[in-house]
Amino acid sequence: MRLQPQDKFEVQDSYEILASYEVVREVVNGITIDSAAVTADGDGKKILKKGQPVSKMASGKYVPYNAAGADGSENPSVLLKHTIDVTDGDVVTGGYEVAKVITERIPVTVDATLKGKMPNIVFA
């Protein structure tokens, strides 16, 4: 008789990006992702991973962080709270404005530039 637990299934993106719940400020259903600004993958899906930094544009919509951008996408202000699929159009989602996160679980390279542009996010 086997008594050890077995993983029967894995919930997509069930990993936690928060390193602490001590100080967290969320934006709940207030972030509209501009689907036109998201690049499709090899399967034609436009997916943004949990923890993706996003930048607010003049239109009021958010786009994925682009360190080399010159259009506002280089200034992130929020980390996505969930993985989202914007293949079929814009999506309204939530994110973190203030948080302590696990650096290794952020889907972009966390360097001094990103840390400097997101002073309310502590990368642990």
Question: How are the SSEs placed, and which strands pair?
Answer:
Elements: E1 18-33, E2 47-48, E3 53-56, E4 62-64, E5 76-80, E6 84-85, E7 91-101, H1 112-117, E8 121-123
Parallel strand pairs: 7-8
Antiparallel strand pairs: 1-7, 2-6, 3-4, 3-5, 5-7
Instruction: Summarize the main sheet.
Output: 6 strands, mixed
Q: Note the gap between the termini.
A: 42 Å
Number of E-type strands: 8
Please work out how many helical segments DSSP would assign.
1
User: Would you tell me the overall average pLDDT?
Assistant: 91
Estimate what percentage of residues fall within beta strands. 35-45%
Unreliable residue stretches: none
Structural class: mainly beta
The coarse silhouette is globular
Q: Percent of residues in helical segments? A: under 10%
Taking all Cα atoms into account, the compactness measure Rg is 16 Å
What is the succession of H and E elements?
Answer: EEEEEEEHE
Describe the structure.
- By secondary structure, the protein is mainly beta.
- The chain has one helix at residues 112-117, and strands at residues 18-33, 47-48, 53-56, 62-64, 76-80, 84-85, 91-101, 121-123.
- It has 1 helix and 8 strands, in the order E-E-E-E-E-E-E-H-E.
- The chain is globular, with a radius of gyration of 16 Å.
- It starts with 17 loop residues before the first strand and ends with a strand.
